[in-house]
Amino acid sequence: MIEDNQGVQYDYVVGEEKQLNELIKGPDIMPLLKSAVNAGASSAALVNSAGETLFRYGDTDREAGLTVKKPVYLEGETAGHIIINGHSDRKHLLEAIGELMFNAVKIILQSNFKTLLATETHKTVVYQSYEELIETNRKLKLSEGKYRELASSLEKQVQERTEELNRAHARLLHQEKLVSVGQLAAGVAHEINNPLGFISSNINTLNQYVLKLKEMLSFYHAAFDKKGPSGECVEESKEKWKRLKLDFVFKDVDDLIKESLDGAQRVKKIVSDLKGFSHIDEDHESDADINAEIDRTLNVLTHEIPQEVEIVKDYGKLPSFSCNPAHICQAFFNIILNALQAGAKGLTLRIATRSANNMIAIHFSDNGPGIPESIRNRIFEPFFTTKEVGKGTGMGLNVTFEIITSYRGAIEVESEAGKGTTFSIMLPLPQKVENV
Amino acid sequence: MIEYDEFENKMVLKLVYYGPALSGKTTNLLSLHDILDQDGRGDLTVLDTKDDRTIFFDLLPFFLTAPSGLKIKLKVFTVPGQVKHDATRKAVLQRADGVAFIADSQLSEETNNSESFSNLEKNLEFVGLDIEKLPLVIQFNKRDLTNIINEDDITRIWEPTGIPVVLSSALAGHGVVETFRRLVELTYGHIDRKYLLGANHGLDKNMFMQKLTGGTVNDAGFKDNRHIAAEY
């Protein structure tokens, strides 16, 4: 069905049947009928195949007499008749008029039929071509739109890809850094451990020697007091004991040795934590105790935590979490360091852990200056930093974000200017398989 | 089918002569018009031609009445072969009941033949007709010329497709009626399956073909027509 621009539906099939009255009109036939009457017929008419009169001219009252009937062919079929009435005296004349009319109508019909077919076919072709053009136009517009969109989004896409590449590059750098830091830490730890071993061992031995010396010295001192070899010697010994403050030395040497041993012990612990933090020995997933990992991280950060900062631990009982502990420590490290660096005096950092709904929740809440709302949704972006150029990489929280999301976890931040910030980490536990 | 009017008990069918430019489609119709009896066929209408090239189409109607009183009108059309008249070809092809593809046997026309056949496939799809189901006959015309594709090649190419092939010389009247008869025969089968011409209207294939082509469905019939054509 084709519709033209006036909204008229146009549905023509080449070969469609045509009726006589579609092909022959008044102006075509009336002059002929009139001529027939003028030539001597009393009336002349054109009727269709059903016998209905389409056109008539002449006196219909005087029908009586002679009738000449001639067929009208359309595509070779009889489509109607020409009826000539007249006086019975005029048989030859009426026959001649009929023959003339037959030929005239035949020529008119043929001509009109061809014209109609040509016109309708042409119209069909034109409308069809028009429809096709509209369709082509529509498709062109569509593809033009696509190309426009492509052109305008290309720049954005390039930008996005570049950012993605930068991020990947930074992550790689960071990982490399982590690895080298870990290796360095492991190397240093190893180097320190050896001398630390003999320092501790020597101090222990020294302690035993000192005890022996002290015992011997005390024995001499006591013997001198009772009955010395000579009077002068006794006095001299007493004086020397006093001058050398040996009473104090005796007391202090124990403390010194004890403190030295403590110190060595502490160095040993730091080295062990450093090794544990870098997890250089275990670069694979294992069942970790999140609370222990937080403690480990805090130990590594000891020197960064000023005296006046208060760390409040509010640990809940947690199930073990399967992860790479080095990664998890790194994630905590960045959040805690951030809080410490942004923190004002009198900072309190509260670390709470809970387990519920198959999740481990970890909250780091500080009472620091808070994160301005304008940048709050950008803090996890790579390279985003509020620190001076060269001071911060802008990678810290991004690394945390990447680590947490790699465990299908979520990290959220709540902050109020001047009141503090809370980072909440949610780590989903593996679904328990329940027996039915 | 152009129309089927149950109330008027009338059926109008359409056959289309398709093919490349100057392959002899109009000549086929002129020949048919001359060879077949006045009885049962109408006038040939040749629409506006320019330098003897068809712009719109030619039309040759045939008539018959089934024993049941069903009036059947079969209109045979040609399409304009020239590439530029593709829209007209689509319009003429609409609702066709059968197609005779008139190929030019000259070796120089092979490309035009295959392009026109592809065009037929494309346009049949456009007007929603299935070339696999539509009655189709191929005529290799101009067999009277030299430098023509040989019969073995034609057989080799077309036999596997199952499409009937007729060799002809439309100008001399050879093979024209046979092409028409083959097409009419296939068309009868196609129409009979759906409208039960035989069962409901008492019109069997023989009668259908007898009325349209004045012969019987056998080889003798074809020979007769060739004889007539030769005489002509």
SSE topology:
The complex is a heterodimer of chains A (436) and B (232).
Chain A: E1 2-3, E2 9-10, H1 20-23, H2 26-39, E3 43-48, E4 53-58, E5 66-74, E6 77-86, H3 91-227, H4 231-243, H5 246-278, E7 286-288, H6 290-300, E8 310-315, E9 321-323, H7 325-342, E10 348-356, E11 359-366, H8 373-376, H9 396-406, E12 410-416, E13 420-428
Parallel strand pairs in A: 8-10
Antiparallel strand pairs in A: 1-2, 3-4, 3-6, 5-6, 7-9, 10-11, 11-13, 12-13
Helix pairs in contact in A: 2-3, 3-4, 3-5, 5-6, 6-7, 7-9
Chain B: E1 3-5, E2 10-18, H1 25-35, E3 45-46, E4 49-50, E5 53-54, E6 58-65, E7 71-78, H2 86-93, E8 98-104, H3 110-126, E9 136-141, H4 151-158, E10 165-167, H5 176-195, H6 197-201, H7 205-213, H8 219-231
Parallel strand pairs in B: 2-7, 2-8, 8-9, 9-10
Antiparallel strand pairs in B: 1-2, 3-6, 4-5, 6-7
Explain how this protein is built:
The complex is a heterodimer of chains A (436) and B (232). Chain A is of the alpha+beta class. Chain A has 3 domains: 2-143, Beta-Lactamase, CATH 3.30.450; 176-275, Helix Hairpins, CATH 1.10.287; 282-428, Histidine kinase-like ATPase, C-terminal domain (Heat Shock Protein 90), CATH 3.30.565.10. Chain A contains 9 helices and 13 strands. In chain A, strands 8-10-11-13-12 form a 5-stranded mixed sheet, covered by helices on one side. In chain A, strands 4-3-6-5 form a 4-stranded antiparallel sheet, with helices on one face. A two-stranded antiparallel sheet of chain A has the order 1-2. In chain A, helix 5 (246-278) crosses helix 6 (290-300). The longest helix of chain A has 137 residues, at 91-227. Chain B has 232 residues and is α/β, with parallel strands linked by helices. Chain B has one domain (3-231): Rossmann fold (3-Layer(aba) Sandwich). In chain B, 39% of the residues lie in helices and 22% in strands. In chain B, the strands form 2 sheets. In chain B, strands 1, 2, 3, 6, 7, 8, 9 and 10 form an 8-stranded mixed sheet that branches. In chain B, helix 5 (176-195) runs antiparallel to helix 7. The longest helix of chain B has 20 residues, at 176-195. Chain B starts with a strand and ends with a helix. Chain A binds chain B through residues 13-17, 73, 75-77, 110, 113-114, 117-118, 121-122, 124-125, 128-129, 132, and chain B through 2-3, 12, 14, 41-43, 45, 47-48, 56-57, 59, 61, 63, 73, 75, 77, 87-88, 90-92, 94-95.
